[in-house]
From TrEMBL:
The chain crosses the membrane at residues 21-42, 96-117, 138-156, 162-183, 195-213, 233-252, 264-284, 314-337, 358-377, 408-429. InterPro entries: Ammonium/urea_transptr, NH4_transpt_AmtB-like_dom, RhesusRHD. The keyword tRNA processing does not apply. Pfam families: Ammonium_transp (PF00909). This is Ammonium transporter AmtB-like domain-containing protein. Residues 59-435 form the Ammonium transporter AmtB-like domain. One of its GO terms (molecular function) is ammonium channel activity. One of its GO terms (biological process) is ammonium homeostasis. Functions as an ammonia transporter. May play a role in the elimination of ammonia in the gill. It is a multi-pass membrane protein. It comes from Astatotilapia calliptera (Eastern happy). One of its GO terms (cellular component) is plasma membrane. It is found in: Cell membrane. The lineage of its organism: Eukaryota, Metazoa, Chordata, Craniata, Vertebrata.
């Protein structure tokens, strides 16, 4: 107990947000390490190598059969989601837009490099000890980064950029290990990452936030809300994510019916979620008004839940049911669970990732397990069953009911890695060496960004009308402003 108390006292000493040396050092050293590791391990795969011409002639292929032409449209959509969708979704805080979109950029740029290496060592290492990189590797790297961006949502405005780099380093490592266990060892199917990405990323971020609990965070409560224009910017992120989520869930599915079905299933889940989100938001607000927080976030929960079962025969009506339920669960989570978790569980969740990613991710894992266990030859056909669940090689004798158990096991692994890994990484990030802000200085861009100019709308309008009066202007245009 004495050691624990000493650790807490050491971690809670006065904060110093000066990252003048630590941030450049981390960025330069880690990028140099990436260059060296890429030089040692990374090579083009046969479809991106200059020898493709010879391979194409030998295998009687055409250029259009190069996987790039099948995968690149999906990669482009996923890439936009990572950098624009997630980035702008985090700009809702009134004075933390730079940090929301800028640190999202930093995490993603570093994370995708480390992800290519980590996933390459687990999945793509050839007999020569080299990682062969192609378009599918880029998509999987973006998926890996998504888990860390989800975790960042719980910590938004409360951590330094150096802490975020450390969070990403460990998060990518944990992700690669749990993904390998779930996909390759347990043989669970998770095309859209309900378990591997959202459940892991959600509980990883929540566990880190629990370890970094700030008892005096109310001192920054004046900056924890949004303003009209910041909510509009965040809604841009929502719309990008909502539009491209079918590509996200179908990006690495098998060509043909699996990819086609995943896009349809996700599309329907998302549409259903919007209506129930609006309904619940209106029902629980005074005079039936809508809360923008719910519209920005809960409307995406259906895409999260559709991930695991995206390529399964979920059926169109089943997709609508999943989306219907997720809209209710996610919106009620924002209304009731988020305040409860902060007050009683000491988990401060800035973006509400528990409601958007963690809970819908668990729902998606459960839906995937039930759908897999109930699969039959009558619905899928023999070849369809084998292809959808990859019943080949050492898994050729597996039956759907067993596959359902494997899906449930995969969900448990994601939860264990998210919670356990988050507690360990949170303990590391609690050390007073990372330049994180004090409790009364959170959610403010001025801590880590230069030339942050916040315009006071009321004073600007007063100055406008004063100028018009001095100039003798009598005709005023009708203008609208929001405090």
């Amino acid at each position: 107990m004495g050691a624990c108390q000493s650790f807490r006292e050491m971690c809670d000493r006065e904060k110093n947000t000066n990252v003048h040396l630590s941030l450049p050092a981390v960025c330069i050293v880690w990028q140099t390490a990436m260059i060296i590791l890429f030089g040692v391990f990374m090579r083009y795969d046969h479809e991106s190598d200059a020898h493709w011409v010879e391979h194409r002639k030998h295998s009687n292929l055409t250029d259009i059969e190069n996987d790039f032409y099948f995968r690149y449209p999906s990669f482009q959509d996923v890439h936009v989601m990572i950098f624009v969708g997630f980035g702008f979704l985090m700009t809702f805080l009134k004075r933390y837009s730079f940090g929301g979109v800028g640190f999202n950029f930093l995490i993603a740029a570093f994370g995708l490099q480390w992800a290519l290496l980590m996933q390459g060592w687990f999945h793509w290492l050839d007999a020569d000890g080299k990682i062969r990189i192609g378009i599918e590797n880029l998509i999987n790297a973006d998926f890996c980064v998504a888990g860390c961006l989800i975790a960042y949502g719980a910590l938004l405005g409360k951590v330094s950029p150096v802490q975020l780099m450390v969070l990403t380093l460990f998060g990518i490592t944990l992700f690669a290990v749990e993904e390998f266990i779930i996909i390759s060892v347990i043989h669970a199917r998770d095309a859209g990452g309900s378990m591997v990405i959202h459940t892991f990323g959600g509980y990883y971020g929540l566990s880190v936030s629990w370890m970094l609990y700030r008892p005096n965070l109310h001192q920054s409560s004046r900056l924890q809300g949004s303003v009209y224009h910041s909510d509009v910017f965040a809604m841009i992120g929502t719309l990008f994510l909502w539009m491209f989520w079918p590509s996200f869930n179908s990006a690495i599915c098998d060509h043909g019916d699996g990819q086609h079905r995943a896009a349809i299933n996700t599309y329907l889940c998302l549409a259903s979620t919007v209506l129930t989100t609006v309904a619940i938001s209106s029902l629980f607000q005074k005079h039936g008004k809508l809360d923008m927080v719910h519209i920005q976030n809960s409307t995406l929960a259906g895409g999260v839940a559709a991930g695991t079962a995206a390529e399964f025969m979920l059926m169109p009506y089943g997709c609508l049911i999943v989306g219907f339920c997720c809209g209710i669960i996610s919106t009620l989570g924002y209304i009731f669970l988020t305040p409860f978790m902060e007050k009683h569980l000491k988990i401060q969740d800035t973006c509400g990732i528990h409601n958007l990613h963690a809970m819908p991710g668990v729902v998606g894992g459960i839906v995937g397990a039930i759908t897999a266990a109930s699969a039959s030859i009558e619905v899928y056909g023999h070849e369809g069953l084998v292809n959808t669940f990859d019943f080949m090689d050492k898994f050729k004798d597996m039956v759907p009911t067993t596959q359902g158990g494997h899906q449930a096991a995969g969900l448990c692994v994601a939860l264990c890695f998210g919670i356990g890994g988050g507690i360990i990484v949170g303990a590391i990030l609690r050390l007073p060496i990372w330049g994180d802000p004090a409790d009364d200085n959170c959610f403010d861009d001025e801590t880590y960004w230069e030339d942050v100019r916040i315009c006071n709308v009321k004073s600007e309008f007063s100055r406008y009308f004063s100028t018009q009066k001095v100039l003798g202007c009598t005709k005023r245009k009708k203008l609208y402003w929001y405090p």
